[in-house]
Amino acid sequence: MISAGTDNLLNKFAKLVSIIFHPLWMPLYGLILIFTAPTLLGFVPFTVKKFLFIIVGINNVLIPLSLLPYLKYRKIISSYNMNERKERLIPLSVVSVLYIFTSYIISGLQVPIFFKSFIFATTCLAIIVTAVTFWWKISVHSVATGAITGLVIALSFKMYAPLVWQIVAVVITGGIILSSRLKLNSHNPAQIWLGFLTGFVGSGAFLYAF
Protein backbone atom coordinates (compact mmCIF):
# COMPACT_ATOMS: atom_id res chain seq x y z
CA MET A 1 0.00 0.00 0.00
CA ILE A 2 1.53 3.34 -1.08
CA SER A 3 1.29 6.14 1.48
CA ALA A 4 -0.19 9.53 0.56
CA GLY A 5 3.23 11.16 0.89
CA THR A 6 4.90 8.63 -1.40
CA ASP A 7 2.10 8.91 -3.95
CA ASN A 8 2.38 12.71 -3.94
CA LEU A 9 6.14 12.43 -4.45
CA LEU A 10 5.63 10.04 -7.37
CA ASN A 11 3.14 12.45 -8.94
CA LYS A 12 5.63 15.32 -8.65
CA PHE A 13 8.34 13.15 -10.19
CA ALA A 14 6.00 12.16 -13.04
CA LYS A 15 5.20 15.83 -13.72
CA LEU A 16 8.90 16.70 -13.75
CA VAL A 17 9.64 13.86 -16.19
CA SER A 18 6.77 15.02 -18.43
CA ILE A 19 8.24 18.54 -18.54
CA ILE A 20 11.87 17.52 -19.09
CA PHE A 21 10.89 15.09 -21.84
CA HIS A 22 8.09 17.15 -23.35
CA PRO A 23 7.60 16.34 -27.07
CA LEU A 24 8.73 19.83 -28.04
CA TRP A 25 12.20 19.09 -26.67
CA MET A 26 12.58 15.70 -28.34
CA PRO A 27 13.93 16.89 -31.74
CA LEU A 28 16.74 18.70 -29.92
CA TYR A 29 17.46 15.58 -27.87
CA GLY A 30 17.48 13.62 -31.11
CA LEU A 31 20.03 15.97 -32.66
CA ILE A 32 22.21 15.72 -29.54
CA LEU A 33 22.12 11.92 -29.78
CA ILE A 34 23.16 12.07 -33.45
CA PHE A 35 25.90 14.64 -32.75
CA THR A 36 27.41 12.72 -29.82
CA ALA A 37 27.06 9.12 -31.03
CA PRO A 38 30.40 7.51 -32.00
CA THR A 39 29.66 7.49 -35.73
CA LEU A 40 30.91 9.39 -38.77
CA LEU A 41 28.11 11.93 -38.22
CA GLY A 42 29.93 13.03 -35.08
CA PHE A 43 32.64 14.53 -37.30
CA VAL A 44 30.27 16.96 -38.99
CA PRO A 45 31.69 20.50 -38.50
CA PHE A 46 30.57 22.25 -35.33
CA THR A 47 29.19 25.20 -37.32
CA VAL A 48 26.82 22.84 -39.17
CA LYS A 49 25.69 21.23 -35.92
CA LYS A 50 25.11 24.62 -34.34
CA PHE A 51 23.12 25.85 -37.34
CA LEU A 52 20.86 22.79 -37.32
CA PHE A 53 20.38 23.08 -33.56
CA ILE A 54 19.43 26.76 -33.86
CA ILE A 55 16.96 26.19 -36.69
CA VAL A 56 15.16 23.39 -34.87
CA GLY A 57 15.39 25.22 -31.53
CA ILE A 58 13.73 28.37 -32.89
CA ASN A 59 11.16 26.87 -35.26
CA ASN A 60 10.11 23.84 -33.27
CA VAL A 61 10.71 24.80 -29.65
CA LEU A 62 10.80 28.56 -29.00
CA ILE A 63 8.00 29.59 -31.38
CA PRO A 64 5.51 26.92 -30.18
CA LEU A 65 6.33 27.69 -26.54
CA SER A 66 5.88 31.42 -27.08
CA LEU A 67 2.44 30.82 -28.60
CA LEU A 68 1.09 28.88 -25.61
CA PRO A 69 0.37 31.93 -23.39
CA TYR A 70 -1.56 33.52 -26.27
CA LEU A 71 -3.59 30.35 -26.86
CA LYS A 72 -4.40 30.20 -23.16
CA TYR A 73 -5.31 33.91 -23.09
CA ARG A 74 -7.68 33.40 -26.02
CA LYS A 75 -9.13 30.36 -24.19
CA ILE A 76 -8.22 28.08 -27.08
CA ILE A 77 -6.58 25.89 -24.45
CA SER A 78 -7.70 25.74 -20.82
CA SER A 79 -4.27 24.75 -19.48
CA TYR A 80 -0.76 24.09 -20.74
CA ASN A 81 -1.37 20.37 -20.20
CA MET A 82 -4.08 20.36 -22.90
CA ASN A 83 -5.78 17.34 -21.43
CA GLU A 84 -8.79 17.60 -23.73
CA ARG A 85 -8.35 16.16 -27.23
CA LYS A 86 -10.00 19.10 -29.01
CA GLU A 87 -7.69 21.58 -27.29
CA ARG A 88 -4.72 19.92 -28.96
CA LEU A 89 -5.87 20.40 -32.55
CA ILE A 90 -4.76 24.00 -33.10
CA PRO A 91 -1.40 23.69 -31.25
CA LEU A 92 -0.58 20.46 -33.09
CA SER A 93 -1.58 22.00 -36.43
CA VAL A 94 0.72 24.95 -35.78
CA VAL A 95 3.58 22.61 -34.82
CA SER A 96 3.03 20.60 -38.02
CA VAL A 97 3.24 23.75 -40.16
CA LEU A 98 6.43 24.80 -38.38
CA TYR A 99 7.94 21.35 -38.96
CA ILE A 100 7.10 21.59 -42.64
CA PHE A 101 8.86 24.97 -42.72
CA THR A 102 11.90 23.49 -40.95
CA SER A 103 11.98 20.60 -43.43
CA TYR A 104 11.88 23.07 -46.31
CA ILE A 105 14.85 25.01 -44.91
CA ILE A 106 16.95 21.93 -44.15
CA SER A 107 16.17 20.31 -47.53
CA GLY A 108 18.25 23.02 -49.18
CA LEU A 109 21.26 22.63 -46.91
CA GLN A 110 24.42 20.70 -47.71
CA VAL A 111 24.24 18.35 -44.73
CA PRO A 112 24.37 14.53 -44.42
CA ILE A 113 21.13 12.89 -45.56
CA PHE A 114 20.59 11.31 -42.14
CA PHE A 115 20.01 14.75 -40.62
CA LYS A 116 17.46 15.56 -43.31
CA SER A 117 15.77 12.19 -42.86
CA PHE A 118 15.45 12.78 -39.12
CA ILE A 119 13.73 16.14 -39.63
CA PHE A 120 11.51 14.74 -42.40
CA ALA A 121 10.55 11.81 -40.13
CA THR A 122 9.59 14.13 -37.27
CA THR A 123 7.58 16.26 -39.69
CA CYS A 124 5.65 13.24 -40.95
CA LEU A 125 4.98 12.12 -37.37
CA ALA A 126 3.75 15.60 -36.41
CA ILE A 127 1.29 15.52 -39.32
CA ILE A 128 0.15 11.97 -38.47
CA VAL A 129 -0.40 12.85 -34.80
CA THR A 130 -2.39 15.95 -35.78
CA ALA A 131 -4.58 13.92 -38.13
CA VAL A 132 -5.19 11.20 -35.52
CA THR A 133 -6.08 13.82 -32.89
CA PHE A 134 -9.14 14.85 -34.92
CA TRP A 135 -10.68 11.50 -33.88
CA TRP A 136 -8.65 10.12 -30.98
CA LYS A 137 -6.40 11.31 -28.16
CA ILE A 138 -3.04 9.70 -28.85
CA SER A 139 -0.14 10.25 -26.43
CA VAL A 140 2.25 12.74 -28.02
CA HIS A 141 4.83 12.04 -25.30
CA SER A 142 4.73 8.38 -26.31
CA VAL A 143 5.04 9.17 -30.02
CA ALA A 144 8.11 11.31 -29.32
CA THR A 145 9.59 8.62 -27.07
CA GLY A 146 9.07 5.96 -29.73
CA ALA A 147 10.60 8.25 -32.35
CA ILE A 148 13.77 8.74 -30.31
CA THR A 149 14.05 5.00 -29.69
CA GLY A 150 13.62 4.33 -33.41
CA LEU A 151 16.21 7.00 -34.17
CA VAL A 152 18.93 5.40 -32.03
CA ILE A 153 18.29 1.90 -33.40
CA ALA A 154 18.22 3.15 -37.01
CA LEU A 155 21.41 5.14 -36.38
CA SER A 156 23.10 2.01 -35.06
CA PHE A 157 22.16 -0.02 -38.15
CA LYS A 158 22.80 2.70 -40.73
CA MET A 159 26.17 3.73 -39.32
CA TYR A 160 27.21 0.16 -38.36
CA ALA A 161 27.84 1.38 -34.82
CA PRO A 162 27.19 -0.74 -31.69
CA LEU A 163 25.27 1.92 -29.78
CA VAL A 164 24.48 -0.44 -26.92
CA TRP A 165 24.59 2.11 -24.11
CA GLN A 166 22.59 4.65 -26.09
CA ILE A 167 19.90 2.05 -26.81
CA VAL A 168 19.79 0.97 -23.15
CA ALA A 169 19.54 4.62 -22.07
CA VAL A 170 16.64 5.50 -24.39
CA VAL A 171 14.75 2.30 -23.51
CA ILE A 172 15.04 2.93 -19.75
CA THR A 173 14.22 6.62 -20.15
CA GLY A 174 11.31 5.72 -22.40
CA GLY A 175 9.93 3.36 -19.79
CA ILE A 176 10.08 6.13 -17.18
CA ILE A 177 8.31 8.58 -19.53
CA LEU A 178 5.51 6.18 -20.41
CA SER A 179 5.06 5.19 -16.76
CA SER A 180 4.88 8.86 -15.81
CA ARG A 181 2.09 9.54 -18.29
CA LEU A 182 0.14 6.59 -16.91
CA LYS A 183 0.80 7.71 -13.32
CA LEU A 184 -0.66 11.15 -14.09
CA ASN A 185 -3.71 9.54 -15.74
CA SER A 186 -3.01 11.66 -18.81
CA HIS A 187 -3.63 8.65 -21.08
CA ASN A 188 -4.85 5.09 -20.97
CA PRO A 189 -2.54 2.17 -21.89
CA ALA A 190 -3.88 1.97 -25.47
CA GLN A 191 -3.08 5.63 -26.12
CA ILE A 192 0.39 5.14 -24.62
CA TRP A 193 1.36 1.98 -26.51
CA LEU A 194 -0.12 2.96 -29.87
CA GLY A 195 1.62 6.31 -29.55
CA PHE A 196 4.95 4.62 -28.86
CA LEU A 197 4.54 2.17 -31.75
CA THR A 198 3.57 5.00 -34.11
CA GLY A 199 6.69 6.95 -33.22
CA PHE A 200 8.98 3.92 -33.21
CA VAL A 201 7.82 2.46 -36.53
CA GLY A 202 7.45 5.83 -38.23
CA SER A 203 10.87 7.10 -37.18
CA GLY A 204 12.81 3.84 -37.39
CA ALA A 205 11.42 2.74 -40.77
CA PHE A 206 11.84 6.19 -42.34
CA LEU A 207 15.40 6.67 -41.11
CA TYR A 208 16.49 3.16 -42.02
CA ALA A 209 14.95 3.36 -45.50
CA PHE A 210 16.46 6.73 -46.34
Layout: helices, strands, pairs:
Blueprint: H1 4-20, H2 26-36, H3 46-73, H4 89-107, H5 113-133, H6 140-158, H7 164-183, H8 189-209
Helix pairs in contact: 1-7, 2-3, 2-5, 2-6, 3-4, 4-5, 5-6, 5-8, 6-7, 6-8
Report on this structure.
The chain is an all-alpha fold and 210 residues long. It has one domain (7-209). Helices cover 74% and strands 0% of the residues. The chain contains 8 helices and no strands. Helix 2 packs parallel to helix 6 (140-158), helix 4 (89-107) packs antiparallel against helix 5 (113-133) and helix 6 (140-158) runs antiparallel to helix 7. The protein is globular. The mean pLDDT is 93.
Report mean pLDDT, rounded to a whole number.
Answer: 93
Shape: globular
Look at the helices and sheets and give the structural class. mainly alpha
Rg estimate, integer Å: 17 Å
Q: Count the domains.
A: 1
State the distance separating the first and last CA atoms: 50 Å
Q: How many strands in all?
A: 0
Instruction: Give the DSSP E fraction (strand runs of 2 or more residues).
Output: under 5%
Helix count equals 8
Largest sheet: none
Order of helices and strands: HHHHHHHH
Helix content range: over 70%
Uncertain stretches: none
Key features?
single chain; 210 residues; mainly alpha; 0% strand
